[in-house]
Design a protein that fits this description.
The chain has two domains: about 60 residues, no CATH class; about 190 residues, Vaccinia Virus protein VP39 (Rossmann fold, 3-Layer(aba) Sandwich). The chain contains six helices and ten strands, in the order H-H-H-E-H-E-E-E-H-E-E-E-H-E-E-E. It is of the alpha/beta class and about 260 residues long. The chain has an eight-stranded mixed sheet with strand order 3-2-1-4-5-10-8-9. Strands 6-7 form a two-stranded antiparallel sheet. Helix content is about 30%, strand content about 25%.
Length: about 260
């Protein structure tokens, strides 16, 4: 039953409907209409004209600018990059309105993504690249500072126009590892827990398996996890053996090509 309910919520949201308690929704609408009436009364004769109504009725009791797990992830790893002070940074598929623009404050960022660039940003250079396809020579073993945050779990699920591949996350990880130069670093994150595919949104990956991929020829320099309560725990790589749900974050330095 919970899985059916979750699927219905996802479907209704995809159709532009936000499910909520009907009684609460009615109460919120009455509150909006009452406030609108009062505002019009107060604004009578005001020089600013009244435009089209744009009702938002579900933020009465929200916290100021909600902080999600992605925001904590972006802040944590952008600090890591800043501490390592690269001259140039390359990113694959991370958030433009979070991590990428944070790093661009102190370092030029080359963004590789299967999708078209939405806008041009100062200090950010876009290139359309599909990591499920063979790497161009200029990206093979040449990147000293590379990131891929909360992206690998989507590879091969078709959500972003990529080809379907059940092992897309593994092929993508191989490509990322091949891009890094000797002595270079990969800043990486993905959702972890009980390993599974939730088609076509994402995969939940196994933390131990992700870290084990870097056993040979790599040194794990930092490991942390964002928990669902937004707290960050810093542990040794060997400590991530359970199935706790969260965002795994780590930095791996390549010893040799």
């Amino acid at each position: 039953m919970p899985s059916i309910r979750k699927s219905l919520i996802v479907l209704t949201k995809a159709c532009g409907i936000r499910p909520r308690n009907p009684l609460r929704a009615c109460s919120d609408w009455w509150r909006y209409l009452a406030q609108r009436k009062e505002f019009l009364k107060l604004a009578k004769g005001h020089p600013m004209r009244l435009g089209q109504d744009f009702p938002i009725i579900d933020e009465w009791d929200d916290h100021s600018g909600g902080i999600g797990m992605y925001a904590v992830q972006d802040l944590t790893i952008s600090r890591w990059v800043h501490q390592d002070a690269p001259h140039q940074h390359v990113d694959v598929g991370s958030r433009l309105d979070g991590f990428v623009t944070q790093v661009a404050v102190f370092c030029e960022v080359h963004v590789l993504d299967i999708r078209e660039a939405p806008v041009m940003l100062d200090g950010v250079i876009f290139e359309r690249v599909d990591l499920l396809e063979p790497l161009a020579p200029k990206w093979r073993g040449t990147v000293a500072s590379l990131s891929c945050l909360h992206s690998i779990e989507h590879f091969g699920l078709g959500r972003y126009g990529d080809r379907l591949d059940p092992d897309g996350h593994l092929r993508g990880l191989e490509q990322l590892m091949a891009m890094v130069s000797a002595g270079g670093r990969l800043y990486f994150s993905c959702p972890v827990g009980d390993e599974r595919v939730e088609f076509n949104a994402h995969r939940i990956l196994d933390a131990g398996k992700m870290l084990a991929a870097f056993d040979q020829g790599w040194v794990i320099e930092r490991v942390a996890m964002v928990r669902e309560d937004r707290s960050v725990i810093h542990l040794a790589a060997s400590s991530f053996s359970g199935k706790e749900e969260g965002i795994l974050m780590f930095v791996a330095r390549k010893e040799s090509c």
